[in-house]
Every structure is written in structure tokens, then in C-alpha cells.
Amino acid sequence: MLTVMQLSIGQVAERTGLSVHALRFYEKEGILAHQVHRGPGGRRVYTQQDIDWLRMCIMLRMSGMPVPEIRRYTELVREGDGNELQRLDILKEHQERVRQQMVQLQECMDLITRKVGIYQDYVNSIASKAVGQ
Amino acid sequence: MLTVMQLSIGQVAERTGLSVHALRFYEKEGILAHQVHRGPGGRRVYTQQDIDWLRMCIMLRMSGMPVPEIRRYTELVREGDGNELQRLDILKEHQERVRQQMVQLQECMDLITRKVGIYQDYVNSIASKAVGQ
DNA sequence: CTACGAACTGGAGTCGTCTCCAGGTCAAGC
DNA sequence: GCTTGACCTGGAGACGACTCCAGTTCGTAG
Question: I want to staple B18 with a disulfide (CB 3.0 to 4.6 A). Which of A1, B22, B40, B93 is the partner?
Fold first, then answer.
């Protein structure tokens, strides 16, 4: 007999890296694909599916998708089949934003690396003078 | 006779993409390498050096360096020679953070790209059924 | 029976980064 | 001399994403 994994909010917090607060916040904001079940005493009971969904949400948030847009996407998924094109649009749009972000970040990285190089050379030259070379 | 370029706050805003508000805010926060000169009527007068410095600050901000840390760096530069090692530390630390950020962003991108691919295939398959294939 | 820890709720507070506002100054053009 | 537009100041407000608080309810252990 195989029972489905059931997790408390604390365990989910541990497993996802989100805080207990954040989990309740996400739920209130409507970015959980399926209603969270409640156990005895009204406590939240999460399943593996919830964890999987949360991990995706974390990825979207990490890459800068705002909560309201994650909600829009979530709502489409909740609605069920038939709106795949809209979901695709949201994802593609975000993909493009992430791409741009990566380009920008690379530019910043180039600048920083250049400056680090300059300072490193300078610091090294001072150090070698100090030992009399 | 070659006069130094002098710019009003509005012109700097145009050239850097920052808002006039943001420029005053940055100044108040102490992240301008040199005191901004004032023209007649107490108006700010910027030079090319200021623009260059601002562009670097924009890069640092874009890549997520918080204002207080940009201030620390700025203060070191204002202090003058002798603290290059500290400047280097700040830059190296930030460089590492940016590197991590890029790795994360790449992971997100991979996930999104995978999902886009799946939805794209699905949408295509629906479309081709619709024309009777 | 009591105490404890983990969970519950609605709502208030925090943090960082601007953004805007009210009220005022100044130079140039009509 | 009046208007217009760009600028000045200090301080308040906005926004997103949490984070924390007060007060309560459980279930289990001592």
C-alpha cells in the first residue's frame, strides 16, 4: 500500500527554501496551482505536486517575473485545457526578458572584470615594489 | 580654446537614462565621486567625468549592488590613493555575486525554454490537426 | 493539567529604490 | 511685468515582496 506524501507547511519551507510566511503569502496571492488541502485543525497539507509547482514558481520569481504575472499564468493552468497559446505567450515574453537581463548582466560583468583586472595589476605592482623588485 | 562640457541635470538625465529625481537621490545618497558644481542660481552643473562615473554606478546598480555598497566604494575613491585593496575586495565580492546570479538565471532560462518547447509542440500539433493532417 | 511547539488568522510593519509634491527661485521671451 | 519652463529644497508617498505580530487553536509529552 503506497500512501501519498503529505507535508506540513514547515516541511515544505525546509524543502523549498521559502519561509513559512512566504508560503502563506503565495497562497493568498493565488499562485498555487491547486487549492492546498487542510488536515485536522485546519492545517495545510502539501503534496509532491505542490512542491513541484512551487519550485517552478521560485524559478520564475528568481528570474524576475512579478507575482501578479505568475498569478495570471497560474489561473490559466487552473482553468484547464484550451488556453495553451496564452500560457505560451506569457512564457515566451518572460523568456525574452530573461534573455535581455542576461545580456545586461554580461555587460556589467565585463565592466567589473575589467576594473578588477586593473586594480589587481596595480595592487600586484605595489606589492612587488615592496619586496624590492 | 577648448571649454569643458557643462550639462544641466535634465541633459544628464537624458544622456544616462536616469530620471532627474534619481540623479538628485544618488547625490543625496553620496554616490557621486566628486561634488557636483553649482552654477548661477544654485543649479547643478555636471561634467563628462560625472557622466562616466554615473554610467558605472548604473552598471553596478543594474547588476544588483545596493546603494549603500556603491556609497562605500565611492567613499574609498574619494579618499584617494592607498585603499586600492579595499576597492578591489568590494569589486571582487560583487563579481562573485554577479557570477552566481548569471548561473541562476541560466537555470531559470533552461527551465523556461524547456516549457516553451513543450507548449510550442503541443500548440503546433493542435494547429496541424485543425487543417486536417 | 500544564506546557510546549507548530500551526492558524488578519492586518500592520519593513526594506530598498525611487517618485512625487508643495512651494519657491531664476532666466529668457513676449 | 508676466508667463513659461527648468531647476531648487525637504519631506511624504508608492511599490513589490515579503516579514512580523498578537492572539488563538491544536496535538503530544511530561
Answer: B22
A48/B16 Cα distance (integer angstroms): 48
- Please, are residues B67 and B29 in contact by the beta-carbon 8 Å criterion? yes
pLDDT tens profile A34-89: 888 888 888 889 999 999 999 999 999 999 999 999 999 999 999 999 999 999 99
For chain A, where are the E strands, in sequence order?
A: 37-38, 44-45
**φ, ψ dihedrals at B45, nearest 5°:** -125, 120
What is the value of pTM for the model shown?
A: 0.87
B42-55 tens-digit pLDDT = 888 999 999 999 99
Distance from CA of B118 to the nearest CA of A (A): 9
List, in sequence order, every residue forming a beta bridge with A37; answer none if it has no partner. Answer: A45
- Give the protein-side footprint of strand C (Cβ within 7 Å): A 8-11, 20, 24, 42-44; B 19, 21-22, 24-25, 40-41, 61, 66-68
Which of A76, A69, A77 lies closest to A93, judged by CA?
Answer: A69
Contact B69, B90 (CB under 8 A): yes
**Radius of gyration, CA atoms only, chain A:** 23
